[in-house]
Amino acid sequence: MERLLRRIRLAGAMICVGAASWAAGTIIAGEAIQTRIVHVSTVTGILYLLGVAALAWTVMATGALKSRVIPIVQLVLLAGALVYSVASFGYRFHDDMTGWLVVTDVCWPLANLCTLVMGIAIAWAGRWSGLLRWCPLLCGGWLVVMIPVKNILGMGVGVYVSAAWLLGSYAALGLALALRPAAALPRGTAATAVTAGV
């Protein structure tokens, strides 16, 4: 039990740090990310992906969903997104990338879409309560919000909206998991952990 709680705390910290890092990275990169590869955004984006992977692990480890299919699919998509991000260090512009890398780039939006599906499933299952039940759905809303914001208001505004959304959803969820890992456990197990002072 104590080992699981420590791992949930670590996962929460990874989610929080990853989201906060990418929020800062997108603001630093600004609109330049539309025309070229900005390495600060790439590095912080990798931290974000690792944080989302930690979220998928937490969902599986705590039984937030009856089935592990969605988080496993999420991990596969995140692996593809990581391949793209790491490989992009060898290029300056997106158009310079080889065909197979362009294919892995699709994993980025698909992974974000999978987060939305996972968030809906967690909210529906109701195995997490309070903030934990609804925050993954809020995290998944990032993609739904950013598409119209980017197209209507432009990327100049979009980077700030993105940063705010990352901090208010992923970072908040990660902080909650890091501070109160027992809240992610099944109700009976969580009560036992709290009583034990974990």
Which features would summarize this protein structure in a list?
single chain, 198 residues, mainly alpha, 78% helix
Describe the fold and architecture.
This protein has helices at 2-29, 39-62, 69-87, 99-105, 107-125, 131-153, 155-179, 187-195. With 198 residues, the chain is mostly helical. The longest helix is centred in the N-terminal third of the chain and has 28 residues, at 2-29. The model is unreliable at 194-198 (pLDDT under 50). Keywords: Membrane, Transmembrane, Transmembrane helix. The chain crosses the membrane at residues 45-65, 72-93, 99-124, 131-153, 159-179.
Strand content: under 5%
Question: What percentage of residues falls in helices of 4 or more residues?
Answer: over 70%
Radius of gyration: 17 Å
The number of distinct structural domains comes to: 1
**What structural category do the secondary elements indicate?**
mainly alpha
Whole-Å distance between the termini? 9 Å
The sequence of SSEs as H and E is HHHHHHHH
Mean pLDDT: 89
Which ranges are low-confidence, i.e. pLDDT below 50, for 5 or more consecutive residues? 194-198
Shape: globular
Number of helices: 8
How many beta-strand runs? 0
Concise synopsis of the structure shown:
Keywords: Membrane, Transmembrane, Transmembrane helix. This protein is an all-alpha fold and 198 residues long.
Question: What is the secondary structure topology, with strand pairs?
Answer:
Layout: H1 2-29, H2 39-62, H3 69-87, H4 99-105, H5 107-125, H6 131-153, H7 155-179, H8 187-195
Helix pairs in contact: 1-2, 1-7, 2-3, 3-4, 3-5, 5-6, 6-7
